[in-house]
Structures are given as C-alpha cells and as structure tokens.
Structures
1.
Amino acid sequence: MPTLVVATANPGKVGELADALAGTPYTVLGLESIPDATPVEETGSTFEANARLKAEGYSRRTPHLVVADDSGLEVDALDRRPGVLSARYGSPTLGDAARCKAILKALVDTPDAERTARFRCVLAVARSGSTLATFVGAVEGTILRELRGDNGFGYDPIFFHPPSGRSFGELTRDEKERVSHRGEAIRKLIDALLKGELG
C-alpha cells in the first residue's frame, strides 16, 4: 500500500489526515515512522518556504512520500502578522490562550471594521528531497474582542467565521474541517493523490 508520512509531531494533525484519507489505498504515518525525526529548522519567510523545507528535509530520511504544512494567522491591522511566526507570537513560551490575548491587546483600539484576518495553509509534498507539489488553502474572517469557544487550538477562539456565525473555537472538528484553510488544502492534496499526480 502507498504510504504518506506526515511531517509533524502533532498526533492531531496526523489523525486529521488519516481520517481524510480513510477509504483510499493510502496508509498515513507520523514522524515516529522514520529513523531520524530530528526537527527541520523552519527558516523560511513564507508559509510555502517553510512547508517545502520540512517536506524536503524529512523526505531525505524515508523512501515514502512526505507531506508537511505551514500555516498561521494573518491580521490585516497588524501588517499581516503574526504570519509565519504564529506559533511563536509574543514569546516562544506562551500558550495558545496567552497568544490569543496578545493579539487582542494589540488590536484593543482597532475598530471592528478593520479587524479583518485570515488563516492560511500551505501543504508541500516531497520525495527524496524534492518538492513535487504544493497545495494552498485560506479562509477569511475577523478577530473578535474576546475568546469564544473551547474547541480547536491556536487562535481558533478569537477567529470569527462569518458564514458560520461562530468562532472557530465554537465549531466542531467536522464543521471546522469543512470550511478551514487546512481542510481546503487537504482536499486539494487528496484529489491529486487519487488522480495519481504525485507518483
């Protein structure tokens, strides 16, 4: 059976892709399946650059296809920050709730009409050190003035999704996957896999 290695130490992300590929010929494994899972340094200045770095780096350590993602939040009033630094905004030691509060503090004087933002995701697929394809997903929304909801992770509780009428923190996992940036990129990846476009 063809195998896809997900370049993440986050079991939730591995499970998400495994669920999405259920019923296909693909077996989905995490980084624990390769002999050297030493983290690949993310030195890129864009989501695509970091996704490519991770996919290519780990694909040199396994014969299987490797998929890596980089994603984050872009807030227009903050000049599209935190962007590629989303996981380290404020301080690398902050937790999710503290990072959300740091964004809210930075936007405390920003009018509602100017609190536009988006989540963006890039998936890169590589084999033997070369990127074969990238897949992009994005979802538009606004930044709330307080945390809402206990679901999801990261900035989900402060990201309001107008078509749903709720924050990402208030959506179930299935609801979020149908509309999220990552869900969109995953659907494009699966389509390419099933069409045999990635070898």
2.
Amino acid sequence: MPEINKIKDDKNKKKIKIGSWIITYNPAATHLMSSLGFKWLCIDMEHSTITFDQMEILISIIESNDAVPFVRVGSNDKLYIKKALDAGAQGIIVPMVNTVEEAKEAIDATYYYPKGKRGVGWAKAQNFGYNFDQYIKNKSDKIQLIFQIESIEAIQNLNKILDLKNITGTILGPYDLSASLGVLGQLESPLVKNAIKKYEEISLKKKTPMGIHITQPNPNKIKLFHNKRYKLIASGNDMIFLGNSCKDFLKKLSS
C-alpha cells in the first residue's frame, strides 16, 4: 500500500511513480486520472470546497483503480485526520508542520495505540466494523504520513522533526516557504534556494523521503527532482490538466 515505500524499493530506479492533485468534486475526472496511470492522487481538503462526504466517494474511486488515495487535510487537526482515515485514506498529508510539537500531534492523530492516539470507531475504512480485524492487522499501521514543510520555521526545526518515528516522508511547499521569508512567489530568490538546499541536505542525511508538488506539469522539472532523489512527486491537478488541454486546443485552432 504504499507509494513511498514502493518507490524506495523499486528496482527500476529510473521509473517515476507520479501522482497528482484533486481539487474539485468531479468523480468522472477522478476516475479517469486514477485509471490512466497516476500511481497516487491527493484529494485536497485545504484549498478546495470538497466536503467530507464527497471526499469519501473520491477515495473509493481512486482505490477502485488500484491507485493510492491520499488526503491533504485542511489543517493539523485530529478531527480532520480521523475523518479522512475513517473514510479510507491510505495516506495523510498535513500542511504547515512547523515544530516538533505539531509533528507529534499529527502522529498521534494518525496511528492507533501504541504508535499514536487515533480514536477508534467503526467506519468505511474497515467496512463499518465488518472488516475491523483485517484493517487493524493489514492497513492501519501502513498509513503513510507526510508532513508539508513550507516555512522557514519548519526548515529550522527539521532536524528534530525528522528524528521522530512513524513519519513516512515530507513534501516541500516552495510558495509558502517564500512567503515566510518575505519574498512571496520569488522562487529564484537566494533566500528560497538556500532554504530548499537545507531541506534537501537534512532530509538526505536523515534518510527521510522528500516530496514536491510541481503545479504546472513540466516533464523536465519532474525529472530534475527525481534525479535529486525526491520520492513523492506530484504534478498538476484535475483543473490544470483540463485548462491546459483547452488552451492548447484553442491555440492550435487559431493558428
């Protein structure tokens, strides 16, 4: 179950297991993306209007196509994390993890005792209790927990954060990182570049998988980050792929 673990053990090191983002409630689009080769899809509950009911349906669609359903929760909140996991999410992405204390809170919310303090209740993830034993034995311990590192405070605390157990990996947030440095959107700023370099150095030293979401699809950038040993790489989202397709079609039509 397992995107990052699968990548780490993949014998074909050149093969990129790419993921993407879902930002609208469009079951048909989610079905299409998960059936055409994306290895994992992240349902965005932070910057979208997707509801919990809709999230649960999208998780089922992704899972039915043998892709891995991730959910980026709205915030580092145990209720949000619990709802996503109970709905069947196999991976949780927690935004704005800046301190060791915040990282511990996310770990506690994600895993059952003794690894954490996740609340126990019958829900869709274990077929409303009918597959509870199987879920505990085969799935609950394999949930992938990803921290978003997207502020200079998080970079400064990264060494200690990555010393914690039960972290699957991290994903860099360059735009929020630039904002925290006072250079919003200036990704080529030396301040941003140096912070990213520090993120990479610490992550590689701690042997913690790195990740990034390249919003505008760009094969060269994807290959660049893959060569830099990033393991969790996402590109685009449902609306960007639709928008880019429309723009390309209209451009060809008018040329």
3.
Amino acid sequence: MNFLPDSVTIIILAAGKGTRMKSDIAKVLHTIAGRPMILCVVETAAKVAKTNIIVVVGHQAEEVKKTVLKEADIKFALQLEQKGTGHAVICAMPLLSASCNDVVILNGDVPLIRPSTIQSLVECHINQDNDVTVLAAATDNPYGYGRIVLNNAGEVEKIVEETDATESEKKINIINSGIYCVKKIYLSTALSQIKTKNAQKEIYLTDIIGIARRNRKKAGLLIGLDQTEILGVNTVYDLQRIESLVNINNNMA
C-alpha cells in the first residue's frame, strides 16, 4: 500500500450525537467487534495518509479525542454547534497546512471504507484534474441516501438529500457515499457559498457539487465496486448489520 502525497489531507467528520442510536454514547464511540468505530476509520486513513489527518469532534469531544489519541497522533477540530456536514468541514479548514492541495473527506460513522478505495478516489480526482470528485455506489435500494443527479452528458449535476428529493429523483439508484476528494482552493470557495435553504436548515457539504456546476468547475464521479464499504451507522440495526459483515470477513480471513 502506497501513501498518498503529502499534499493530500484527510478530514474525518465525527462530531455528531447520533440521536437515532438512542444512546448516551457518542455515535462514533459505539463499538464494532469490540472496537470504537471511529478507530476503524482513523486506522484506514492512517494507512494511506500517515498523520495528515484531521478529526472533527463535537458531541463528547474529549471522550472521542481521548479514544483516538490512544492509537493515533493527529489533529482535531472542534465543531461546537451541529450545523451540518459543510459546517463541520468549515471548522477543520484552518488546520489545513499551506502545502495541502487536495482534501479527502470521510465520515466517522462509515467504518468499512478501505484504504484502496481512498487511493482510487484520489487517483481519479488528480488524474482527471477534477475540482471535486465524489465516491458513489449503485444500489437497488437507495432509500435514505442522497441521490446523485447527472446531466445529459453524464456529468455530476448535483446531490439531493432524501428529505429534499422529488419523486423522480428518489428513483435514482446512484447514491452518494458522503466521501469526497476536493481541491483545497475550490473547497474554501464553495463552503463560503453554501446556503441553508433545505428541510434541516443545515449547511450541507453535498451542495459543493451544485456550486461546482454553477461555477463551471469540474465535478467528477467514482462508482465503487463494493456497496458495503459506504454503509453508514445511524441506528442500532445499522451497527449490528455492519458488525455481522465484519465478523463474516474475519471468519473468512
């Protein structure tokens, strides 16, 4: 496994409370096979980015930091108010080094993402000279995921969240993983242009795609081969499902 260039930094979003987990424990501290899920993501990131990693913390921030620091020496950004994924990235931007050219954005509650997939995403992004590249998956059951809307040329037009999607958009089976690679200079510009005109009144990171199209920036797409890699944890059922997959993989190893 080769490391990413030093000009690439990974931001991991891990500030959410996870209210649907119905637990007093921060969502990313829930365990999978006895291991806090945030460590699964941090370990994967470290395999390709060494210490060029920033974890955005918020709910139970000190506990999350304490857990991560037991295994990794990385930076932390604090998101005091939960204003959405775009706001979480805004909180991390001041920690990016001057030498950083591209940013990979991962989620602390998507624990099965593989190092090789992150590498493929960055390679696609750099080789195609995209301003932003989104990791996607094709699925027969897109419910609950943001839909990736393509234009007639097959280019990424925008990403629409489930709660904001029209009936025709809900039928789209190409879903957003919530994982991106973005040029730092474009990311900074796009974040400043995001509005909160959505059902949740939040700053959606997904809006950087639509902003790219409106500003004639290049928005690329990489469709992953394994949909299970982008499974996220929002409920106890999700946690149990992912743990079952991990146990199956461990037994096959």
4.
Amino acid sequence: MIRPLAAVALALTIASATMAAQGPATPEELDAKLSYQTGKVQLPGGMATITLPPSFRFLGQQDSRKMLVAWGNPPESARGVLGMLVPSAVSPLSEDGWAIVVTYDEDGYVNDEDAKTLNYDKVMSEMQEQTVASNEARQKEGFEPITLIGWAEPPHYDAAAHKLYWAKELKFGSSTEHTLNYSIRILGRRGVLVLNAVSSVDQLETVKKGTPDVLAAVEFNEGHRYADYLPGTDKAAAYGIGGLILGATAAKAGLFKLIWVALLASKKLIIAGVVAAGAAIKKVLGGRNAAEA
C-alpha cells in the first residue's frame, strides 16, 4: 500500500517527468489555444460595445485570464478583467507582443469640470512624491522601489466624447528597461471603463499609433452613457479628472491601483518557461505582482 505522502510524491514525479518529456509549450502553441473575436463585441453586463477595427482583436474574460497567467501573473490578478484588446499584426506572446487590458470602475459619475484648469505638471509632481513615499513600505515588504520618471505622453481629454488618455514612464528597482503605463479612460453614467496598455516603453510610438483606433472603438451603450447621468439619483464619484489621473488616490487607498499592469511588461522574460514555470518564477514574478494588484 502506498502511503498518502508517498503517493503525492510519486504523482509529482510522474507529472514532472511527463512535462520534461513534452517540453514547454511554445508561444505558437499557446496562441493557437486562444479564441480571438473580431467585429462587434459586447462587454459583460451589456454596458458597452467595442467595434473592433481591423488593427485589433479581442480576448474574452477566460482567454484574458490565460494570457495574464502566461505572462507570469497569479490567477487572482485577472479578477475584474473584462477582456483584452490585442493588435492583429502580432501575437501577444511574441517578443513584440502587447495588449490593452479592459476593466471597469463603478465609482460613479466623474465630473469633468476640473479638466479645464488642471496643471498636469503639478499632477505629475504629486504622483512622484507619493511614489517616493510609498517606496519605504514597499522595501520593508521586500519589493523593489518604483521610480516614476515622468509623462511619456501628457494627459489629453476630449470633453465632447468624455474620453481621456495619458502615459507614464516608470522604472522598477535598478532595471535598465523602463516600463510604459499607457492609460485610456472612457467616462460613463455610473463609472469609468479602464483600459491599460501593457508594453515596454520602447513600444510607446506603436501604442500611440493604435490609440485613436481604440478611442473610436469603445462606446458605452444607451442608458450607460455619460449624458444619461441623472443628478440627485445616480451616484457621483468622489473625484474628478485630476483624481482619475492620480488613480483616485485621495478617495481610494493605494497609489497606482492597477500597478500590476505595468509589471506585465516583464512578460518577455518568462514566455519560454510558461508551462514549466517553477517556484522561483512564482516567487520572483508572481509573488511581486500579487502583492501589488
């Protein structure tokens, strides 16, 4: 009779041997298992429609979860993700791959009046100060410090369409490769659609080129639009455009609410071992991302 612990050990040994024999899955094999959508896509709950241009494809919630995990993130990092926009010309698992992660913040209607008078240099200074202040706590927990270099693309707000985008350049620890945190926000009646591009900073021009297509593609459906807001009836957010760019720091706990998205640029380092990823990768990449999600 095999004792329980011995049985577990035997099962692990067999599984490891099988995996070693098969070898890690290639990016092509992983990519083939994803179900890309084209045309018109309805986001969960029917709140918004994405009319995909030829330059982009869409991955639903389940496939987005697979992609995030394939990039070295723990499964819980995909919580709340509605989908991903993926360039048609390149696989997200290739060396040049990138994507836009879609989530939704139902914090209420965001009043955009402050957009007319915002000083974006001052907003950046505030974010840099808060990033420095947060680094002491990060390092105590064993995580590398973050340096917010500055705007990779200053904020742009379309008051007619109620759409906003900007980009930040960040550095993690002593890494020589900087990370791009490219953000798009679509304002609605009860909250904001959050679109964050996942790429390295050297892909800034590529992401910028795709931004007009993304801005035009995403629209709230009737009843969920910014113009449908009912003052006194619907919930209003505790922040405006400035708070939205800051990550609503004044109203909600934590700087860079979705900072794990910026960390996903490290995907290029772990694609080759995604299937056979061991405890070391989980500790170094997965643990760090989970702590910052």
